[in-house]
Amino acid sequence: MSGGWNTIESDAGVFTYLLQNLGTKEIQFEELISLDSDSLRQLSPVYGVIFLFKYPTGQSKATSQPEDGTFDHNAAENLFFAAQTIQNACGTQALLSVLLNHDNTLDIGSNLKEFKEFTSAFPSDLRGEALSNSDVIRETHNSFARSSPFIDETQRAATEDDDVYHFIAYTPINNVLYELDGLQPAPISHGACTFDEFPEKVIPVLQRRIERYPAHEIRFNLLAMVRDLRIKAREIGDTEMLYREQEKRNMWQWENALRRHNFVGFVGELVKGVVRSKTQDGQYETWVEEAKKRTEKRLEDRKKKGYAVDDV
Questions:
Q1: 84 vs 133, 199, 253, 312, CA distance in Å?
Q2: pLDDT in the model for residue 171
Q3: Which residues are catalytic?
Q4: pLDDT at residue 237 greater than cutoff 60
Q5: Fewer C-beta within 10 Å: the chain N or C terminus?
Q6: β-strands 165-173, 176-180: how paired?
Q7: C-beta of residue 84 within 8 angstroms of C-beta of residue 93
Q8: What mean pLDDT do residues 114-131 have?
Q9: How far apart are CA 89 and CA 228, in angstroms?
Q10: CA distance 167 to 186
Q11: Rounded distance between C-alpha atoms, residue 199 and residue 193, angstroms
């Protein structure tokens, strides 16, 4: 029996190296700060975007038609579309929804090529099961999860009190703009769209999606799957751009390495060292009393502002 899937962050460095570790080449992700077509077009070629949003848990699932666009049930048989069958897998599933629909122009590597060939005749629900049970994909996905000694997310189901987030993909396939969401019964068509038109066509769709939420909701994240920007820098002879992109890769590798480490032991030893130092200097009791006074002052300040004492 396969193990579980852990939560991964919506982060350009995580997604870039996740796909690289699966065997892909010359692909990276870029986070989009502004929602405009010019910013997206500057990254061309853009193969698709991954959108992260807070999932409305109290909302009933779509039936005959989605809120925007139309279900294309026939397309589910002609492109890679997999139903989401397991918690926490939607991030990697969204990446693959873009990648495996552009394998004719991208080098997806032998592992993913074999996976797509193996599942090519499957209906969407069996594709989802095959993805969830792929040891190679799951282990690569989990290698980018933050180390936590306190929570085993593979054994924990979300509750009504949790904020639940969901990844979906938008990509142009066969001159149609598709929304690929494993929680929906079929790909959602948003109309005609060539590969070159994608930056202009996808932005209004994303804007309409965001407008469904209250104005104060800002917890969204958008990442674009693009060609490795170092290639573009070399092609145009931009040494400064090449340096920036390589430095960014170095930072991503450093951050991904930190995600794998459990720092609880380090913090524990650090606290022991501080206590030992204060004890040796004869300042331990004074240090404890000062900490108590600061805590009491914070509690008094919170009372004055009308907060309950136990609000954290």
A1: 12, 27, 29, 35
A2: 98
A3: 90, 166
A4: yes
A5: N
A6: antiparallel
A7: yes
A8: 94
A9: 25
A10: 16
A11: 10
Phi, psi of 238 (to 5 degrees): -95, 95
CB 191 within 8 A of CB 176: yes
Q: Give backbone dihedrals phi and psi of 270, rounded to 5 degrees, phi first.
A: -65, -45
Give Cα 312 distance to the centre of its chain: 28
Query: In the numeric block, which tokens belong to residue 261?
Result: 């480490």
Handedness of CA 205, 177, 95, 127 (dihedral sign): positive
**126-129 contacts at long range (C-beta below 8 A, 24 or more positions apart):** 127/80, 127/81, 127/82, 127/83, 128/82, 128/83, 128/84, 128/85, 128/86, 128/93, 128/182, 129/85
* Residue of 181, 214, 192 whose CA lies nearest to 52: 181
Task: Evaluate if residue 309 carries a pLDDT over 70.
Answer: no
- DSSP annotation of 146 reads P
User: Other CB atoms closer than 10 Å to residue 212's CB: what's the count?
Assistant: 12
Beta bridge pairs of residue 53: 166
Write the burial class of residue 241 (CB in 10 Å: 0-12 exposed, 13-18 middle, 19+ buried).
middle
The H or E element spanning position 27 is strand 27-31
CA 21 centroid distance within chain: 16
CA 100 to chain centre: 17
Identify the CA nearest to 166 among candidates 85, 69, 88, 76. 88
Chain-centre distance of CA 12, in angstroms? Answer: 8
Q: Where are the domains of the chain?
A: 12-227, 264-304
Phi, psi of 139 (to 5 degrees): -65, -35
* Helix/strand/coil for 264: helix
CATH classification number, 12-227, choose in 3.40.532.10, 3.40.50.300, 3.40.190.10, 3.40.50.2000: 3.40.532.10
**What are the tens digits of pLDDT across the range 15-39?**
999 999 999 999 999 999 888 999 9
